[in-house]
Structures are given as C-alpha cells and as structure tokens.
C-alpha cells in the first residue's frame, strides 16, 4: 500500500501514456489498415501487390525492430522529426510520436488481415446484388461490403486492439514513459517485486479485460443476421 | 489469382481494362516516386555508400554479431515453443475437465497470462530470478525470455487446443465411451490426435508469434538478432543498414514458417475432401475471394 501511495502519480501518468499510445495508434492503424484491405481486394493488380507486400513485410517483422527503426533509423540517421524542435519537451514528444508511428504501421497489417477475412464472410449475393444494381467497385465496397465486413470483424478487431494495448509496452525501448518503463524502474528500486509485478499485471488486466468484454458484447450486437 | 470471377467486381470490359491500366500506371508511378524520395533521402544522408554496407559482406561481422544473434533468437523461440506446447496442452485439457475447480484454475491462468503484456512478464521473471538467484547470471535474460514467451504462448495454445477439441463432433467421444474407454483414454487416443491435425495451422502461426516476440528480449538485455544488429550498427556506424538487414533476416524466418502453415492447412483441407477425418477442423468460410487466404491468424 505504501508503494501505491508513493508512486500513485507516476503510476497514473504511466498508464495514461499507455492509454494515449493505444488510442492514437488504434486510429492510425484502423485508417491505414482499411486502405490496405481495400487495396488488397481491388481489381488493380499493382495495388493488390503493394498491399500484399506491406502485410508480408510488417507482419513478419518484430515490433521491437520497427520501433527501434523509427528511432535510430528515421530520427537519428535520417533526421525525421515529428515534433517542434524548439519545444522544451522535444525528445519526449518526438519519441512518443515515433512510437505511435511504429505501432500504427505494425498494427495496420493485422487490421488489414482481419478486415480481409471479414470481407470474406460477407455473402456473395450481397456483392452480386450490388453489382447488378450497377455499383462500381468502390461503391460496392463502401456501401455494401465494408459495412457488413466491419460488423463481422468486431471481435477480431477487438483482439487486435487488445494486442495493441499490450504492445505499447514495447515503446519503452525508445524511452517513452509508459507502464513497462515505470515497472522496470520500480522493480529495480523496490524490494517488493511481487507487489510491483502485481500492480502492473492488475493495471493491464483492468485495461484489457473490459475491452474484451465490450468487444464481445458489440460483436453480438452488430452480428449480421443471416 | 485470376482477374475474372470475383464477388466484388465484374470481369473488366475494354473500357474498364483501360481504366485499370491507367490506375496501375498511376500506382506504379506513385511507388516509384516514393522509392525515389527514399533513395534521395538515404543518399543525402550518405547511407548508400559502399562503406555502410560492406560489413555485411565480411565474414567477421556475421560470425561476431549476426550469427550469435540469430542463434539467440532461435534458441529462445524453439525452447519456449516446446514448453508452450506442453503448458498449452495441460491448460487446454484442464479447461475441458469434468471437475469445476480444475476448469476454473486453468481458465484463470489462461485469461491472466493472455491479458498481461509479454514484456511485463519478462521484466518480472528477470527480476525474480535475479533476486532469488535461480539461474546463473549468464542465463538470466534467456530464462526470463523463455518464461515470458512460454506463459503467454502456452495460454494462447491452450485456447487453440480447447477450440480444436471442441470442434470435433460429439459422436467421437460418445463412441469411445461406448467402447468402454476411460476419460484419459478418450482424450489421448481419440480426441487429441484428431484435434492436433485441425489445430496445426494455428499452432504454426503461434510459432511465428513466439519467434517475433523473442525480440522483446532486447529490452531485458538478451542478445538476440535485433540486439546483435544494433551492436553491429554501433560498431560500424551503420545503424540503418544493420537494422534493415536484421529485418530481412526476420522476415525470411517468419515468412518461411507462415508458408509452412499455409501449406499444412491446404494439405489438411485436401485430405478432408478426400475422405480423411470428417469435420476435424473448424468451419471455414466457403467463399473465397482471389488473393485471400483464410488461415486463422491470431495475434
């Protein structure tokens, strides 16, 4: 208990950073993943190839490597800066945004795959009916197939999001002050390792468990009646 | 992958073909443009000089850095996948037990370790082993990586096992019971062998996850391929090329495993069509759109 009161501010800050990382990366990954999924089912061979290559590359690369690459490669070697340089918290902000970039790029590959399998579950008749009404590919995808696909993949997208929440811990590799970085610090400085471990385990259970329940509920709610 | 006969668009007529060609060219041009921008930026920072890439043609940089790193990754992944399979089988069968307490305990363990990030598990077990001197300091990081990966992947595999056994028709276990088999016999000789074939693709996909996650060892000081690549980059002053080479190594390793998983699944599906074990796999969508594989990909 002493530990909790001693570190309460830091704990809240750290988990808030985790939540922020998750939220921003989720938005990025969802947008990018949807575009990629559309590319992968499009009639343009080149676009299909690009989408497939993207998924193969980023799904098979460890996230640790991608995030290190964002920091060492993009920032230190190539000089890519994602925050105003004169700002006093430049390094913090820049690392945070680089981590969001890395997480989005990585997660987008999984979002794309989930969506694609969702598109797969949409009944053939739906798309056929759309086509017979004279809808073009993009109209068909936008108005008929994707809305149903999104409903079908609510649960898989939920697990992608939970995985993303857990993956944000890897952002500590470039010094983003989220939960696992604080845990490393606390576990080295405090004698009670089981208590520290318990606090962080509980923190993540609190973050991910309601998410799982929510997405389970949503997927039942949005289920396409067939 | 043929262009005709998909659900989303008609086979293109002459007009559409022209349009597709136009868009193809536009996409290709955009790609080339991005490629050129990247090339120019790399060139500008002097990342494309021979000096930056030469270390990868020398055997010493492989023998001192990359090969020990690859070995570290493979050892951690292989050991933890073996332990995870054992743990997963125990927990998965535990979740199907007739005794409620066993079910609850197994379920609790599975849900807990699936909810906690692997990195948190690794940091915790590292400190735990260091504090109580369970392992020699040389093996501390390796042990922590293996424990973290085993607990997480074991829990995921437990779910795969459970789903695999549940997907078998009830008649299988009923018939076995009618023959007078005991519970253990039913599980061992009837259910598991059939379920394993159905679970194989998912288990191989999980191996890819274990292999990728072994890179988390980087954060607790385990020398795996990302760490060794980074050391190489520090030594030769070529971070960017080193990280790219490491990425290529990892992609090749993981992609090979993914291809194996897809092959295995295809074979299983073909075997089923040919009158193999019926209904031994989870139902897969019957409709397939070009370029879509429906392997069950878990994160």
Average residue pLDDT of chain B: 83
| Helix proportion range of chain B | over 70%
Largest interface: A-B, 71 and 65 residues
Compute the separation of the termini of chain B in Å.
Answer: 26 Å
Uncertain ranges of chain A: none
Largest sheet of chain A: none
Tally the helices of chain B.
Answer: 10
The second-level CATH architecture of the domain at 73-224 in chain B is: Orthogonal Bundle
Helix/strand class of chain B: mainly alpha
Q: Using the alpha-carbon principal axes, give the shape of chain B.
A: flat
State the low-pLDDT regions of chain B, or none.
1-5, 275-299
Content of β-strand of chain A: under 5%
> What is the CATH top level name of chain A?
Mainly Alpha
Oligomeric state of the chains?
Answer: heterodimer
* Number of DSSP E strands of chain A: 0
The ordered string of helix (H) and strand (E) elements of chain A is: HHHHHHHHH
CATH homologous superfamily heading of chain A: MetI-like
Q: How many structural domains of chain A?
A: 1
Describe this structure in words.
The complex is a heterodimer of chains A (226) and B (299). Chain A has a single domain (2-222), classed as MetI-like (MetI-like fold). Chain A has nine helices and no strands. Chain A has helices spanning 2-40, 45-59, 63-77, 90-121, 124-132, 137-152, 154-167, 179-189, 193-222. In chain A, α1 (2-40) packs antiparallel against α2 (45-59) and α4 (90-121) packs across α6 (137-152). The longest helix of chain A has 39 residues, at 2-40. The N and C termini of chain A lie far apart (53 Å). The model of chain A has no long low-confidence stretch (mean pLDDT 88). With 299 residues, chain B is mainly alpha-helical. Chain B is built from ten helices and no strands. Chain B has helices at 14-44, 50-53, 59-95, 100-115, 118-132, 140-166, 170-178, 183-213, 225-236, 239-273. Chain B starts with 13 loop residues before the first helix and ends in a 26-residue tail after the last helix. At the A-B interface, α2, α3, α4, α5 and α6 of A face α1, α4, α5, α8 and α9 of B.
């Amino acid at each position: 208990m002493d530990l909790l009161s001693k570190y309460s501010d830091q704990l809240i800050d750290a988990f808030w950073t985790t939540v922020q990382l998750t939220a921003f990366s989720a938005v990025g990954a969802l947008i990018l993943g949807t575009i990629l999924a559309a590319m992968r089912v499009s009639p343009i061979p080149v676009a299909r190839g690009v989408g497939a290559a993207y998924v193969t590359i980023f799904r098979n690369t460890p996230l640790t490597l991608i995030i290190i690459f964002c920091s060492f490669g993009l920032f230190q070697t190539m000089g890519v800066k994602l925050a105003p340089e004169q700002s006093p918290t430049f390094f913090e902000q820049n690392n945070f945004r680089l981590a969001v970039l890395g997480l989005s790029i990585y997660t987008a590959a999984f979002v794309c795959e989930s969506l694609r399998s969702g598109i797969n579950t949409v009944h053939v008749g739906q798309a056929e009916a759309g086509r017979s009404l004279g809808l073009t590919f993009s109209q068909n995808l936008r108005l008929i197939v994707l809305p149903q696909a999104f409903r079908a993949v609510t649960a898989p997208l939920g697990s992608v999001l939970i995985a993303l929440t857990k993956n944000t811990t890897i952002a500590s590799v470039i010094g983003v002050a989220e939960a696992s970085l604080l845990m490393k610090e606390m576990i080295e400085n405090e004698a009670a390792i089981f208590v520290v471990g318990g606090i962080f385990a509980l923190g993540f259970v609190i973050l991910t468990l309601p998410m799982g329940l929510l997405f389970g509920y949503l997927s039942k709610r949005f289920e396409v009646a067939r | 992958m043929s262009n005709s006969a998909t659900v989303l668009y008609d086979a293109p007529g002459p007009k559409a073909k022209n349009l597709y060609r136009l868009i193809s060219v536009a996409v290709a041009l955009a790609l080339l443009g991005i490629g050129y921008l990247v090339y120019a930026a790399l060139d500008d920072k002097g990342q494309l000089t021979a000096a930056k890439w030469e270390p990868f043609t020398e055997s010493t940089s492989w023998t001192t850095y990359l090969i020990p790193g690859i070995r570290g990754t493979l050892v951690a992944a292989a050991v933890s996948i073996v332990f995870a399979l054992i743990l997963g089988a125990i927990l998965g069968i535990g979740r199907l037990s007739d005794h409620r307490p066993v079910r609850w305990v197994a379920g609790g363990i599975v849900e807990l370790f699936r909810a906690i990030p692997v990195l948190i598990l690794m940091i915790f077990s590292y400190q735990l082993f260091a504090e109580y001197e369970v392992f020699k300091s040389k093996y501390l990081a390796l042990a922590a990586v293996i424990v973290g990966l085993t607990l997480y992947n074991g829990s995921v595999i437990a779910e795969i096992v459970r789903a695999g056994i549940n997907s078998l028709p009830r008649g299988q276990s009923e018939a076995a019971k009618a023959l007078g088999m005991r519970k253990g016999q039913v599980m061992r000789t009837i259910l598991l062998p059939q379920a394993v074939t159905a679970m194989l693709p998912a288990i191989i996909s999980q191996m890819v996850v274990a292999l990728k996650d072994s890179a988390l060892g980087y954060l607790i000081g385990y020398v795996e391929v990302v760490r060794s690549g980074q050391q190489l980059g520090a030594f030769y002053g070529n971070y960017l090329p080193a990280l790219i080479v490491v990425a290529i190594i990892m992609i090749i390793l993981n992609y090979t495993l993914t291809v194996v998983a897809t092959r295995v699944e295809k074979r299983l599906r073909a075997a089923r069509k040919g009158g193999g074990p019926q209904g031994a796999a989870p139902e897969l969508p019957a409709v397939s759109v070009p370029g879509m594989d429906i392997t069950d990909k878990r994160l």
